[in-house]
């Protein structure tokens, strides 16, 4: 049975970074946007408030690398104002700033293809918002501008296939075949544990770091969408830890 789906292209004209939240002074980047980042992009377009995950269970994402971009590292020295505890301490020279060094990875001009599985009414609202977003859209950090292209609602046809155009949830029962493959522990959701306390949920994904097709050694359940074979994330059952 065919299912409504939304596909759109993501073009990064300059650079972007998808920081692994476990890093402190070295900010490594995922090679493609985590599902939490894709949800944030949609929520921003819809003018939803920050940390509003009310729509998360209604959307199932898939994403593939079209062009991986160039991975570079930048070195920054961050200066923070130091709050003096006494007037005497504030009067001492050189006691105003605290500095720290940070290495950041960035991706220069990558391109991605994203897909969403949901009810038609929801997809229609998301598509309209991506075409005319309520706020400027970015991907990753707030100054990483992004272009959303080729937005289209169509049908996702179930297929069994061994060539994929998206990253796929890792199950341990499939192996790459005749293609480069990598694995990543990708964030896909935040669960509220308290008023301002959130738990990060992750899932292992397999993907082709060079972009294009990921070939595996057996056929798995996927969807055919406009010539692309994609695997969507499993449904999210719970929102609270």
Q: How do you describe this structure in short?
A:
This protein has three helices and 13 strands. The chain is mostly beta strands and 241 residues long.
Question: What does this protein look like?
Answer:
This protein is mainly beta. The longest helix is centred in the middle third of the chain and has 12 residues, at 120-131. The chain has one domain: 2-Layer Sandwich (Alpha-Beta Plaits). It has helices spanning 35-45, 87-91, 120-131, and strands at 3-11, 15-16, 26-27, 60-67, 70-81, 97-108, 111-117, 147-164, 168-169, 182-194, 197-207, 214-225, 228-230. Strand 12 (214-225) and strand 13 form a beta hairpin.
Keywords:
12% helix; Alpha-Beta Plaits; 241 residues; 13 strands; 6-stranded antiparallel sheet; globular; mainly beta; 3 helices
Give the strand order, joined by hyphens, for the main sheet: 4-7-1-8-12-13
Helix content: 10-25%
DSSP summary, beta strand count = 13
Unreliable sequence segments: none
CA radius of gyration: 20 Å
Task: Assign the structural class, choosing from mainly alpha, mainly beta, alpha/beta, alpha+beta, or little secondary structure.
Answer: mainly beta
Tally of structural domains:
1
Report, as a whole number of angstroms, the end-to-end distance.
Answer: 33 Å
Layout of helices and strands:
Blueprint: E1 3-11, E2 15-16, E3 26-27, H1 35-45, E4 60-67, E5 70-81, H2 87-91, E6 97-108, E7 111-117, H3 120-131, E8 147-164, E9 168-169, E10 182-194, E11 197-207, E12 214-225, E13 228-230
Parallel strand pairs: 3-6
Antiparallel strand pairs: 1-7, 1-8, 2-6, 4-7, 5-6, 8-12, 9-11, 10-11, 12-13
């Amino acid at each position: 049975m065919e299912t409504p789906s939304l596909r759109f292209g993501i073009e990064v004209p300059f650079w972007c970074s998808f920081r692994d939240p476990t890093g402190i002074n070295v900010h490594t980047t995922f090679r493609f946007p985590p599902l939490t980042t894709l949800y944030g992009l949609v929520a921003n377009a819809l003018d939803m408030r920050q940390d509003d995950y009310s729509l998360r269970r209604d959307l199932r994402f898939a994403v593939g690398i079209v062009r991986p971009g160039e991975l570079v590292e930048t070195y920054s020295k961050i200066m923070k104002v130091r709050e003096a505890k006494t007037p005497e301490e504030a009067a001492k020279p050189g006691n105003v700033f605290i500095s720290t060094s940070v290495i950041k990875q960035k991706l220069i001009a990558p391109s991605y293809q994203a897909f969403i599985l949901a009810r038609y009414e929801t997809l229609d609202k998301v598509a309209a918002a991506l075409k005319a977003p309520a706020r400027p859209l970015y991907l990753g950090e707030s100054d990483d501008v992004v272009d959303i292209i080729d937005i289209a609602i169509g049908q996702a046809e179930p297929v069994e296939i061994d060539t994929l155009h998206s990253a796929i949830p890792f199950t341990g029962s499939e192996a790459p075949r005749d293609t480069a493959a990598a694995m990543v522990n990708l964030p896909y959701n935040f669960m509220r544990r308290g008023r301002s306390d959130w738990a990060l949920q992750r899932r292992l994904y397999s993907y082709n770091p060079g972009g294009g097709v990921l070939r595996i050694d057996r056929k798995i359940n996927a969807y055919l969408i406009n010539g692309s074979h994609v695997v969507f994330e499993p449904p999210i059952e719970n929102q609270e830890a």
